[in-house]
Each structure stands twice: as C-alpha cells, then as structure tokens.
Design goal:
By secondary structure, the chain is of the alpha/beta class. Helices cover about 40% and strands about 15% of the residues. It is built from 15 helices and eleven strands. An eight-stranded mixed β-barrel has the order 4-5-6-7-8-9-10-11, surrounded by four helices. Helix 15 links the parallel strand 10 and strand 11. Helix 3 crosses helix 6. The protein is elongated. About 30% of the residues are buried. Bound molecules: guanosine-5'-monophosphate (G) and manganese (II) ion (MN).
Length: about 375
C-alpha cells in the first residue's frame, strides 16, 4: 500500500519520502525541519507501535502548522473525532482514489503555506503569542510550558519601614509562546487544565520556600476556579505547611458567585492559616460581592488607579477614600503598579504604606532586593 501510494504521488508530481512506521516518520520530519520542511504528512491510523493520532501529537511538539492527513480502513467514531479534535486536517477512508488523494494533498500544501504566512503576519503585527493553532499544538506547547515553568518575584515595600516586607510570585515560562500568565491561562483553559497550571505554580513557589527563597512572606495569585481544586484544601501538602507565610490573592476581575460553597471554601483556607487578599481592586466588578465573600485581610489596589495619580485629582480622591475605608475595615492596603516617584510621593501623602511596582523592582527570577528606598528617589 505504501509503495503503491508513493508511486501514484510521484507520478502526480510530488516529491515523496516513505516511512515504515511512526518513529521513522518523526525522525525524518524533524531532520528536514530546518532545511527543507515537508508540506504534508499522510499517515495510516492503525500502525504497529505508534498510531496515527499519537504521531500527530508528537509532530505538534516541533511543528505547529504541518497538515496531517490520516487514512484508515476501519474508522470508529472515536478515532475520527479524536483525530479531528487534535488537528488532523482530513480523514480519508481506504481505499483512497488517486484523484481524491491528489486533490486533498494539493489543498493541504496550500493550506500549509497559508498557515505559515498567517503566523508571519501575526508576528509582524505583534500578535504572535496567543495564536498557537490546533488542540495538539496547544497541548504540546502547554506541556513544554509546564516543564519550563518558573516564578518571578516582585517586592512589596513598606515606605515607613524602608524595606521589603513581602514578594508577589508571578508565573512565567521559558516556552516563548506561553511566556506570560495571560497566554498560559488561555492555553490551560482551552485544554481544561487550569488545575494543572495552578498546581504547578504552587509547587514551584513551595519548592523555593523550602529552600529559603525568598525569606519573606509570599503573595500568590489564585484563580477563582482553583478554589474548586481539592488539592488546594489538602492538609498534608507542603503548600499548606507554609500557609502562615502565604497570602492568596484572588482577583476582583472574575466573579466568585458561581463557585460552589465559596464562602466555606475561603473560610477553610483561612482556618488553615492562609491570609486572603483581594487583587486588582478598582478594575473588577462593580459592587461589593467579591469583597463580601472574601472578607480580605489585604486589599491590593489596581494599577489603573495608580497610573498618573499625581496628575489626576479624581484618582487621588478615590484612592485616598478607598485606603481610609479599608483601614477602618481592618484591611491592609497594598498599592500596585507604582512606576514614578511622583506617584509614590502622592501615595505616601495619602498614607499608603505598602507599595509595589516597577519603581522599586520588576518581577525577577531571583527575588530582587530593594536595599535603600532612597536610591529610588
Ligand atoms: O493582576 P496582578 O496584580 O497579579 O498583576 C500583576 C502584573 O502586573 C504582573 O504581570 C506584573 O509584571 C505587572 N506589574 C507589576 N508592577 C508593575 C508596574 O509598576 N507597572 C506595570 N505596567 N505593570 C506592573
Ligand atoms: Mn496579583
């Protein structure tokens, strides 16, 4: 069959390379990637060793655009669905007529060229990061992103004490397509693997804490959906053992109302010794629902309110009001996104003590030290 198809395609003008099984095909594809990449992969579904769907997944680990066409003599609904879901371009039933094969391959080659150009256009326009193709492609990138996951730390400083009092942990990845939290969370969403991402972040933070890094309290962002993960509530994890050093930041940007038993869940976390912060206050939902649900120990004011506060009397009045109300409610306030000395000075006048932002340090792999606040102005 392999030889017959190859002969047919050669006579139709294609350049053909044959592989006897999945492993051989993979090696061939990878070897040609840099110099003379293939335009299309045509494979059987059932093969000894690696099947066609697995081959497709493995291809996506190094080539996001290569069209893959699968053939089978005995299709099952599951295998067809699975193949298409994972990004097979077409699914052909054997025996395949020469004419059909020629047509399908011809359009695959063109689609491949189109996909490559689209990717170049997106890169040109600066949209390269979020666009990572089909399910198998996202899966491959996401696994790589989890392998290359790391944590950047940004200091939270006290103006009065003139020192760093805590760090916020911010997830990063060495996988360039999924380097930022936004891209990572989007990919996790598409794959329904949010919990895996949350767990990996918590594991990375816990591992560092175990090694004494940083020697301060750590704020960690917890996605509202993570509040449904039983692993977060287990008593025998290292994460829970560090609870007295950890602040869980829960964003105001997403509503908590749809999370089942959310008040009980938050209370249980607090009982374990975690402190709770409401993140991005001012940029999220109107109303007080999340605030009432979380009863936060710490309130983090969104950087949109900080930006240009020295030049904006309305922002000044708002932040001043929020700060004094929070203090009356017994919450500690942290103001985020402080970029300039002028912003810092206005915040100091408004009696905001705890600040975070590029003025003091950018998030970095090695928790940055801010020795002398004087050096920032
Ligand atoms: O939503 P949350 O507060 O967790 O987001 C923090 C994000 O803000 C991080 O990605 C961090 O890199 C970014 N960030 C931190 N400080 C500053 C700042 O001073 N200016 C800007 N523009 N972004 C900041
Ligand atoms: Mn945060």
């Amino acid at each position: 069959m392999l030889n017959a198809i190859a002969r047919l395609l050669v006579s139709a003008g294609y350049e053909v390379e044959k592989a006897a099984n999945g492993a051989e095909a993979l090696a061939r594809l990878e070897a040609h990637l840099e110099t003379h990449p293939f335009d299309v992969l045509l494979s059987d579904v059932s093969m000894p060793g690696m099947d066609g769907v697995e081959l497709l997944g493995r291809v996506r680990a190094f080539d996001l655009d290569l069209p893959v066409i699968l053939m089978t003599g005995s299709p099952s609904i599951e295998s067809v669905t699975k193949a298409l879901e994972h990004g097979a371009l077409r699914y052909l039933l054997k025996p395949v007529e020469g004419k059909v094969l020629d047509e399908v391959l011809g359009s695959a080659v063109r689609l491949h060229q189109l996909a490559r150009m689209k990717r170049q256009a997106l890169e040109l326009l600066g949209f390269d990061k979020g666009q990572i193709g089909d399910r198998a492609g996202v899966e491959a990138l996401f696994s790589r992103a989890l392998d290359g996951l790391w944590v950047a730390y940004q200091p939270i400083v006290s103006l009065r004490q003139r020192k760093v009092v805590a760090y916020e942990a911010l997830v990063r990845s060495d996988e360039p397509h999924l380097a930022t939290p936004g891209a990572l969370f989007d990919a996790a969403d598409r794959l329904r693997r949010r919990w895996d991402l949350g767990r990996a972040i918590r594991a990375a933070v816990t591992l560092a804490l175990g090694q004494g890094v940083p020697p301060h309290d750590v704020h960690i962002n917890v996605d509202p959906y993570d509040l449904l993960d039983p692993e977060l509530f287990a008593d025998d994890t290292d994460f829970t053992r560090f609870s007295s050093r950890l602040v869980l930041e829960i964003t105001e940007r997403a509503s908590l109302e749809s999370i089942e038993n959310v008040r009980l869940r938050v209370r249980s976390l607090r009982d374990k010794g975690f402190r709770i912060a409401i993140d991005d206050l001012g940029a999220g939902y109107a109303g007080l629902n999340n605030f009432a649900i979380l009863e936060p120990d710490i309130v983090k004011i969104d950087m949109l309110l900080t930006r240009g506060i020295d030049r904006d009397p309305t922002k000044r009045k708002l932040v001043g009001g929020i700060v004094s109300l929070c203090q009356e409610l017994g919450c500690t306030v942290v103001v985020e996104g402080v970029e300039t000395r002028e912003e810092r000075d206005v915040l100091a006048e408004l009696r905001c003590d705890l600040l975070q932002g590029y003025l003091f340090a950018r998030p970095q792999r090695i928790p940055p030290r801010v020795e002398l606040l004087d050096s920032t102005g």
